[in-house]
Amino acid sequence: MSKKNTILVVFVLTGAFLVGLGVFKKVELYQQTQQQLMQKKALFAKARTKFNSVKHAKYDNKVIHDFDYKDYKAAIDNDIINKYSIGTITIPSVGIKEPILEGVSNQKLSVGVVTVKPNQKPGQGNYALAGHNQLNNGKLLFGNLAYVKPGNQIIISTKEGTFKYQVTQIDKRLSAAHGEIIDDNQGEGIVTLYTCNNQTNNDRIFVRARLLE
């Protein structure tokens, strides 16, 4: 075989290997995702039967990183949902249904959405929640937040009761520098949701809704 043909064969085989590796990675990710969905479904059903009153939860905002399955496994092993679940958030129009966990940590963000300020209560001030954008057009965490539309309903249930909000404002390219969106001076009886925009590194997907009377 000529040197030219040998190089061509090596190139083709290398390309085939990389394509195969890419397919394997996608299959592996799909299997991990399905496993996560099944585990979360069981834990979430259990957590909904009791909403905790969590005291002294930590808010480790400065150490947050992208979703990592190691955090997810640790969260499952540490029973994070049942320990820190204070309620649920449901957005029927886009299929979001997640536990609300008190405090901020990588483990909590891997299995639910989190309160970003201490001592928040739904129906009062600016109830702010954050979550990972785990999958584009996916079923995990805030992966479908980008598909919320004005007028959609957001339902938050806690020990205080069930609160229904209507979406009034959406921004899919909000700069991460706008940290004021979670401040209480933004309004009364509102909820603020945000997640990363996977298309841009420095932007956030931001949704705001107002409490329905």
Automatic annotation (TrEMBL):
Keywords: Hydrolase, Plasmid, Protease, Thiol protease. InterPro entries: Sortase (IPR005754), Sortase_A (IPR042007), Sortase_dom-sf (IPR023365). GO terms for molecular function: cysteine-type peptidase activity. The active site is at H132 (proton donor/acceptor), C196 (acyl-thioester intermediate). It holds the Pfam family Sortase. It comes from the Bacteria. GO terms for biological process: proteolysis. CDD domains: Sortase_A. This is Class A sortase. It comes from Latilactobacillus curvatus (Lactobacillus curvatus).
